[in-house]
Amino acid sequence: MTSAPENNYIEIKGARVHNLKNIDVKIPRGKLTVITGLSGSGKSSLAFDTLYAEGYRKYIDSLSVGARSLLEQMEKPDVDYIHGLTPVIAIEQRQDALTNPRTTVASTTEILDYARLLWPIAGEPRCPKDGGKIEKRTLDDEVDALMKLPEGTRVILCADIITAKPSIVREEVARLEQKGFSRVRVDGRIRETSESDLWPPKAKQVQLQVVVDRIVIAPDQKSRVADSLEIAFKEGQDKAVALIEKESSPSQGAVAAKESGTVKDRGGTGAEFPNKQHPSQREGQGVGGVTEPKYKEMQLRQSFSCGLCGTLYPPLLPQHFSYNRPEGACPACLGLGKALEFAPELVVPDPSKSVRGGAIKPWRVGPKRIIIRHSSILKQLAEQYPFDPETSWQELPEEVRHFLLYGDKERVFELRTWSKKHPLEERPFEGVLAALDYSFIHTSSEWLKVRLMGFQIAKTCKVCEGRRLNPYSLAVKLNGLDFASFIQMPVVKAHEFAETLLKDSKLSKLSDAVNGLEQRLRFLRETGLGYLTLDREYVSLSGGESQRVRLAGQLGMGLVGVTYVLDEPSIGLHPHDNGKLLGVLQKLRDIGNSVVVVEHDESTMMAADHLIELGPGAGHQGGYLIFEGSPQEAAKSKASISGPFLSGEVRVTKNAQTIPPTRGFLKVIGAAHNNLKHIDAGFPIGLLTVVTGVSGSGKSTLVNDILGNAAALKLNGAKTIPGAHKSIQGLNEFRSVIRVDQEPIGKSPRSNPATYIKLFDLLRKLFAQTPLARVRGYTASRFSFNIRGGRCERCGGDGVIRLEMHFLSDVYVPCPSCGGKRYNRETLEAKFSGVNIAEVLDMPVDDACELFKRQPPIISKLDTLKAVGLGYVKLGQPATTLSGGEAQRIKLSLELSRKQSGESLYILDEPTTGLHWMDTQKLMDLLFRLRDAGNTVIIIEHDLNVIRLADWVIDLGPGGGDEGGNVVYAGPLKGMISAAQSLTGQELAKTLKV
Predict the structure, then answer these.
(1) Distance in angstroms (rounded) separating the CA atoms of residues 111 and 513
(2) Which uninterrupted H or E stretch holds 597?
(3) Looking only at Cα atoms, what is the longest distance across the chain?
(4) Would you call the peptide bond into 616 cis, given omega within 30 degrees of 0 as the criterion?
(5) Among 452, 430, 426, which residue's Cα sits nearest to residue 439?
(6) Same fold for the domain at 9-87+561-644 and the one at 665-744+884-993?
(7) What is the phi/psi pair of residue 840, to 5°?
(8) Nearest Cα to 765, choosing from 844, 861, 850, 842?
(9) What share of residues in the chain are helix, strand, coil (percent, to 5)?
(10) Residue 263: CA count within 13 A, CB half-sphere
């Protein structure tokens, strides 16, 4: 029997998940608890794989069998028991379900749902064609409008039928004649249905209306008017027209018509009454050629219609403001806001080539006969335009390049598009891009389509201009603002607009929707995300930003008595904004929740009520509980590794010299992408530069979207298009660019650190040289779990077998044949120093270093993994289980293992993600090794420890979003502290005083 736990604690007893060493932990309920420690010490194993997994499992077990089959199952954590557990909600850095490009900040936080209620109910609809007001009109409204005409007014009531080809109209006339109608109005002329020459023989389009009734307005005719108009609406699909004869009191009739409805001459302009605009007049030919009296047209509509042109529209619904529904989405881009287009930069990737030498690369793709045809066309154009096809693309005049890409629709060329047997054709040349579009749309070859897609990029949709909605939805305005403009606003401005809606008395009946909208926008601001636009794609957010977006959503729910588990929510957050995040976490705590945060950030740790530290090392050297108590106690504890850093006794130091810029600068001139304000930025060549600034200030835009993409395009031949800028100077100083980000090293569990850094190839060659392998004739391929022969065929080299459960999620169990080792028995009999290939893949890097210490090619790669702080990672650990920070350091390890030329540009995006102070120290030592080898290192970072060690600092800001995009400071670290507008300098000054 276990003793009852204390009511105000979550008690974890005997946790043994992954590397946890049977530890006992007490987490106070209703408090803010931070779990910290070195990378790989077991923090996530305790917080997510033990605490959250058990909470989730217990919740699933409480559901019916049918409900459980629809939800993801989690393995029961290896723990004796957990008592005092409340419902648990995990907010991790990434959610695979939220990687759809249609998922945005607004949709994730329910802002989109609330806004979609306001616009259809309180918005003012306008016609997208002419801006006329769209109003709901009924049969009674239109009957009253006709009855207001002066008594004695002669009215011909017609129903709009169709505008189409004569053959189709002829069928409609026959149908109408069968229903008893004897007169129709064809292109403005009233004729008998029995006439044979109803329209000109060469007419391409014919407008058909049917005459329903001829009425003389009088008080006793209201019932007849209503019946006839009802028939007209039925035949004309809610559209009808009243022809008011001018001879019957023309001036009075016009005035009366103006007061009651819309008067419009066919082909003229309509007028919304009571405008002073005069309707146009027209004459028609009557039956048998008799001249008809002059009349005015009065458009009659049932349902929603434009007061000017009379166009019918469907009633507004919330679906009209969803770009995920056909009712609201732009018909061209289907609600994505982007469309694939051929990019000139990719079509001509190498401007140093000539037209004849293959400058236009996609015209060198495809079957040989097509390539010959394209070459022939270019040769003929060169003779007639003319231009020199031997001149390099970059040296051709601008007008020639424009002509080749976009064509000349005014000028006619004599082109023979196939062989000499075919005649010359006189036609304009529409350009290479138009020709590629045609080929892409009409080709039946999937292979060619895939090849051509490599020359396309996603550009803003030309129809909706990136606004995602159709013209009808975009024309609806609420307080002068259309829905798309609201969704494109930064959170700060959208919240200001929502506050004005709260004060609008007209929206009192929609107070729930307005309050919900304002609250969720306010929560986003409170989490430090005021710079994000509401239409920002969720997949483009950093791990910390995505967590804070979901955290704002949780605030909106107002749950009480819940345990929230978060994974480093401070990632991507500037120290200046940390106070906002801490305020949100404390608010969750204060309303009665328990908040458990895995974190390395100093300010978050110091604000915690309770601190749990695991260690002392990583991997098998970690998993122990080395400290539990308050942050203040940790600062004084000798057992805590983080304590000396919290007290300021130990800090990350620069174990390298600070070098002044002597090799010139890599310069970005006129950067104007996203929120950048046409800035110039210089990065010293051969130094370590840190680009910093508050969240949303433009760091990633400058370094990744402009500099990184431009460098990858020029140096690596990558198909990346840089953001808007004038020019980049200094790229000729580099041979290659290496971009180290936090994207996974592979999407399959078969990918692992050993395969990524090319270590697995060396291991397989080594095992192929073992005595048993040589006797049996095993080659290196025998030791791959991806190839038949050496792998276990029962599991296909996966190591696990999937069991299909009819009422539950699929279960994965170790393969009974290989026991999860992936290889067959014969392969595992080949051993090196007493271990087989499966045992090597299951080894941590530290143990592998000891095993292969006499194998120089292998140990050199292992040393780089160990140098980046990944000694605890197993060589065969699936890539899907690695954190973003671990993936980034594995990529850095691969670059370190290569021979250094000293002419590489390294770009790193927040490399300290998930790193403890001691891990950060190892990372910075490595980066300065790269710098000292002659390379240039550029880092995007918020960590003050990294900023403090930089050779050169570029600070963007001063704020985020529209308030950012300027260079606040550029130069050595010392000068930034005194820069008045630098928020980074202000935060740095505080740490230097400590």
Answers:
(1) 10
(2) strand 594-598
(3) 115
(4) yes
(5) 452
(6) yes
(7) -65, -45
(8) 861
(9) 40, 20, 40
(10) 29
CATH of 753-881, one of 1.20.1580.10, 2.60.120.10, 3.30.420.40, 3.20.20.70: 1.20.1580.10
| 266 within 8 A of 299, measured Cβ to Cβ | no
Name the residue among 849, 824, 850, 853 with its Cα closest to residue 837: 824
Residues ≥6 apart with Cβ < 8 Å to 898? none
What value, to the nearest 5°, has the Cα angle with vertex 126 and ends 124 and 132? 130
What are the residues whose beta carbons fall under 8 Å from the beta carbon of 649, sequence distance 6 or more?
Answer: none
Burial degree of 574 (CB within 10 A; 0-12, 13-18, 19+) = buried
Q: Partners of 533 in the beta sheet?
A: 490
CATH class of residue range 134-313: alpha beta
41 vs 642: CA distance, rounded Å: 13
CA atoms within a 13 Å half-sphere pointing along the CA-CB vector of 21:
14
Identity of the amino acid at 565: V
Amino acid identity of residue 178, one-letter, is Q
Does the structural domain 9-87+561-644 have CATH classification 1.10.10.10? no
Closest CA to 690 of 941, 913, 958: 941
Backbone φ/ψ region at 984: left (φ over 0), alpha (ψ -120 to 50), beta: alpha
User: Span 339-460: which CATH code?
Assistant: 1.10.8.280
Strand partners, 154: 216
**Residue 911 is encoded by which pair of tokens?**
């490399």
CA–centroid distance for 893 within its chain:
29
Neighbours of 507 (CB within 10 A): 18
Q: How far is CA 305 from CA 132, 133, 140, 141, in A?
A: 9, 8, 15, 13
Predicted local confidence at residue 369, as pLDDT: 83
H-state helical runs in 324-409: 344-347, 368-384, 398-406
User: What's the gap between Cα 780 and its chain centre?
Assistant: 42
pLDDT digits (tens, 9 = 90+) for 20-74: 999 999 999 999 999 999 888 899 899 999 999 998 888 887 777 666 665 566 6
- The pLDDT score that the predictor gives to residue 281 is 30
The DSSP bridge partners found for residue 823 are 791
Q: Give per-residue burial for 350-378: e unless 16+ CB within 10 Å, then b.
A: eeebbbeeebbebbebbeeeeeebbbbbb
Q: Where are the domains of the chain?
A: 9-87+561-644, 134-313, 339-460, 665-744+884-993, 753-881
List, for the chain, all residue ranges whose pLDDT scores fall below the cut of 70. Answer: 1-7, 65-74, 93-99, 196, 199-201, 246-293, 417-423, 543, 803-812, 884-885, 992-994
Q: What is the DSSP letter of 532?
A: S
Please give the Cα distance from 431 to 441 (Å, whole number): 16
pLDDT at site 528: 82
Q: What is the pLDDT of residues 733-759, one digit of tens each?
A: 999 999 887 777 877 778 889 999 999
The fold of 665-744+884-993 is Rossmann fold (3.40.50)
CA–CA gap between residue 450 and residue 50 (Å, rounded): 45
């031997």: which residue's tokens?
390
Asked if omega into 274 is within 30° of 0 (cis), the reply is yes
Report d(CA 934, CA 905) in Å as an integer: 10
CA–CA dist 10, 120 (Å, integer) = 48
Strands (E), 254-365: 262-263, 295-301, 303-306, 312-313, 338-342
Dist. CA 913–CA 651, nearest whole Å: 18
| Helices and strands of the chain, counted as H and E runs | 37, 36
Length of the chain: 994
Q: Which residues contact 651 (CB under 8 A, 6 or more apart)?
A: 645, 917, 945
In the structure encoding, which two tokens stand for residue 761, read together?
């190839």
* Cα angle, residue 381 at apex, residues 377 and 386 outer, rounded to 5°: 160
At residue 94, the pLDDT reads 58
How far apart are the C-alpha atoms of 298 and 245, rounded to whole Å?
11
